[in-house]
Amino acid sequence: MSMEPQGKNLVGLSEAGAGDKSFKSYNPTLGAEIEPEFVGASSEEVDRAMQLAGEAFPVFRRKSGEERAVFLEKIADEIEAIGDPLLERCDAETGLGIPRLTGERGRTCGQLRLFASLAREGSWVDARIDTAIPDREPLPKPDARLMLMPLGPVVVFGASNFPLAFSAAGGDTASALAAGCPVVVKAHRSHAGTAELVGRAIQAAVKACGMPEGTFSMIHGDGRDVGTALVQHPITKAVGFTGSLKGGRALFDLAAARPEPIPVYAEMGSLNPVFILPGALEERGEAFAQGLCGSVTLGVGQFCTNPGLVLGLEGDSMDKFIGAAESAFGEAAPATMLNPGIRDAYEAGLETFDKTDGVALVAKSSTAVDAVATQAGAHVWTTDIDAFASNPELSEEVFGPTTLVVKCKAKNELIRAANQLEGHLTATIHGTEKDLEEHLDLVEILERKVGRIIFNGFPTGVEVCHSMHHGGPYPATSDGRSTSVGTAAIFRFTRLVCFQDFPQVGLPDELRDDNPCGIWRIVNGEQTNGAV
Amino acid sequence: MSMEPQGKNLVGLSEAGAGDKSFKSYNPTLGAEIEPEFVGASSEEVDRAMQLAGEAFPVFRRKSGEERAVFLEKIADEIEAIGDPLLERCDAETGLGIPRLTGERGRTCGQLRLFASLAREGSWVDARIDTAIPDREPLPKPDARLMLMPLGPVVVFGASNFPLAFSAAGGDTASALAAGCPVVVKAHRSHAGTAELVGRAIQAAVKACGMPEGTFSMIHGDGRDVGTALVQHPITKAVGFTGSLKGGRALFDLAAARPEPIPVYAEMGSLNPVFILPGALEERGEAFAQGLCGSVTLGVGQFCTNPGLVLGLEGDSMDKFIGAAESAFGEAAPATMLNPGIRDAYEAGLETFDKTDGVALVAKSSTAVDAVATQAGAHVWTTDIDAFASNPELSEEVFGPTTLVVKCKAKNELIRAANQLEGHLTATIHGTEKDLEEHLDLVEILERKVGRIIFNGFPTGVEVCHSMHHGGPYPATSDGRSTSVGTAAIFRFTRLVCFQDFPQVGLPDELRDDNPCGIWRIVNGEQTNGAV
Lengths: 532, 532
Known about the structure:
Two copies of one chain form a homodimer.
Chain A: E1 9-11, E2 14-16, E3 22-27, E4 32-39, H1 43-60, H2 65-82, H3 84-94, H4 98-121, E5 128-130, E6 144-150, E7 154-157, H5 171-179, E8 183-186, H6 192-209, E9 216-219, H7 225-232, E10 238-242, H8 245-256, E11 264-267, E12 273-276, H9 278-297, E13 309-313, H10 316-331, E14 335-336, H11 340-355, E15 360-364, E16 375-376, E17 379-384, H12 385-390, E18 402-408, H13 411-420, E19 424-430, H14 433-438, H15 440-449, E20 450-455, E21 494-500, E22 521-523, E23 526-528
Parallel strand pairs in A: 5-22, 7-8, 7-10, 8-9, 10-11, 12-13, 12-19, 13-18, 17-18, 19-20
Antiparallel strand pairs in A: 1-2, 3-4, 5-6, 6-21, 14-16, 15-17, 22-23
């Protein structure tokens, strides 16, 4: 396998690139385009990728959990086998730096292996068996057996801010493949080379594991045509996306307007409010300022879980915290953002804050920004609850290393602010145990507003495990019922199928009496991993 | 509680009816309107119902599983306590007959009690706990705890064809209340009195169990304004509907176009194809004809699972089956449909069949139809695979007691027909075990096309149990991922919430270390009903 991107689309096991648009990746650190040239897919190639996915589906969905597990593990192995050239290409395309990208590669391969273990273990299908009662009155009870099955071909859009963990072999790809759905990736153009290298790793795993050709394809495209064609294609059965509210809503609207509507799982950003309660503010306001600054500036603020809003009570403790934040943010070094478009949008967001009455800048990075290196500085602002409530633009995410501290006069203002929140991915509470006991009403409100509530931590850094949830009510995501991180993400790409009065020979292994998969099932209402 | 409907809307614990439109129910058997007059809700009353639901939600969602179970059981008790007046009113409004309605009441109360047992047992929340690993390298692992929580206020549209089991206290109401979501029902105008009586039973249960006032409301409305207002109301978080493709799609489109899109679970009908395989056709074609006629005419063909399409191989066995079907359908007595609109639509559908080249009428009810009594006769038709494939109108549901037999020349034509199917609620295979073994490819195709596959039975009659699925890919439903029957229906009205590093005092009972609910959870990847 070549360690350099060739500028190609990967359609099944072939290379492609007959589109009439081409582009190059941009190195934000150097401020210059880099080789090679990427050619977008033609509409025939897009159709071919979906046709192949449609042909692969009946075969791929019948692969056992063990076979899918081996395949996912092989993808992880192939990604690791690329070695440093992957990290170097990725750093060149994103400016995220080798240490962060080494971590992100670990997370990417870790989540592929976690989904492998999920597929291998197999209980995720939520199998249920109700056995027949032929002599029940007034009517016999039939034998009914239920399980989750894969939905069909899935289109995954690569995310600019996670070139590995939410892109070609990212979370949605891992969970869709684990469920038994072929995947067609629309690569993000700002890391097209990274996507191609990872795509070739998946292609190699498809070959090595004897999976059907259309199990995976990866499409480049400059502009919206390719994305639209993929979402509108009749073979597509679901869409995964991470990006802006505007972009995610556009895909959602396209999918809802199809003759056959399909689900769109779009994660669209979030302010991730942090509530600092009185006891904690008094006890450790300065340490909180340090932690907050670290979380806001992590990855140059380019995380969906970036804490962009802090709420606490005014007073001496607040003032001390603000003083500490002033130092911390002032000392934070400017850093390279993913691309000039994101940097420009960040600066436009700062300008909005700057112009809003009642909002004051507390501090910004004191070192000058290197514009050629696409740098941005950290910012921290303050306002009061009235200005916050009356300026809706302050509730919109500014993607980058900035946060706004809202000073409230009393607990009832904190509660009012919580009640007025839209949907967010996360909310965080900093407090003593006493604070928490005195603010259980706040927890109750946040349970209805966000996907994950963190106590005495920071929302950045999303653990990949069975119990994680990365999602939240609209507008944080287009479908607040589901998660993009953690093993529950597999449910995105599944639907129920029931078999009634079927002989054993016609049943999937997961539903047979002898439970050959050894999975946990609900049999006549009881959890068991035994046979019927 | 009055045993006669008063023509009122039930908004929380009050009666209402300030709308400017009124209507009466129609007795299809008598062919005449019946008292009382129902007044639709005004837009203020619709808003009031949703506001009350919004206020009830934070309180109702915190009720324990036991409290919700007692409430659901109380609703069932109150419905039974109405006694014969409920069945009589319902029969007057639907013409379905006392025996069927007695059965449907049993099913309605049975599913309320099944959801009560689900809420009481509690494991449905899919609780997961991953405990912290503070010394993990390179980063500590946080404690993460995940569970399903209720989505928010749900709007349920009553279904004309199940005045009890899919209406005011029907499946969606039961699963939404079990999940912790308040419900606002839009009563179906063709059984408004039935809805009011059942609504009053729920109102009584709300009072008796001390649930918040807005836990339940029931709204009448003539025309679309009320339904549109309910779906567009910002407090509404999900919609359940059973009815026509046109009606369901309209609600789906409204919901998708909201500033905050919400899920619509619309069940929109289905042809429910039945495949009769060669061995079974030879062995028991005549018995199959009897069974088919019974299923097609059950409830005057007004089931979502009515088998409207039969596919088998031509030949002597087919001819014998057709002969038997001719007798059976000819002998089937005409019967009263739900209302004149449904009867007229049925007749229009028959006319389409009659005019389609290549479609022949095999038989219809030989007894004359009583038009005043809104009667319709049973019909059975034949065609061949080419005429079926080239006339898309033959793949559209005709709601009523009619079915179309498609004669195929060989197995490959059966497979072709299966591959061309759109989404359906069910498919049925009649065959010997040998037939099934020789048609596992057919099963594989059907797994991708329908929600439930029945072997040697008929699709009408949907068992309410843990393992049931009533749903299917579009256009059978607007969301093929979910079911409207069986305990898995509770997932419709839920979303995930994760608690990270929370002290025990801030956690819901379901996620506490000591597992006070005694539920099954996934703790560090292992199923257990023990403590952490």
